[in-house]
Amino acid sequence: MKVILNSVPYERDESLGLDFVPDPDIVVSGSRELELMEAERLRSGKFQG
């Protein structure tokens, strides 16, 4: 997205103070997802889709 926005002219509003830190409720690392899947498998005996 950044490449696209940098390639077209538009007025940037720098006053927004955007926060680019990933939200942990939305973004999960691959290793954390594997931990969660393994815990689910051990708890229920199978993966939940």
Please describe the structure with a list of short key phrases separated by commas or semicolons:
mainly alpha, 2 helices, 49 residues, 0% strand
Task: Give the helices and strands, then pairings.
Layout: H1 2-7, H2 30-44
Q: Could you say which structural class the secondary elements and strand pairing correspond to?
A: mainly alpha
Note the total helix count.
2
In the predicted model, the low-confidence regions spanning at least 5 consecutive residues are none
- What global shape is seen? elongated
- Mean pLDDT, as a whole number? 83
User: N- to C-terminal separation?
Assistant: 30 Å
Computed Rg: 19 Å
Kindly state the number of beta strands.
0
| Helical percentage | 40-55%
The SSE string, one letter per element, is HH
How would you describe what is shown here?
Helix content is 43%, strand content 0%. The chain has 49 residues and is mostly helical. The mean pLDDT is 83. The chain has helices at residues 2-7, 30-44.
Give a short summary of the structure.
This protein is mainly alpha-helical and 49 residues long.
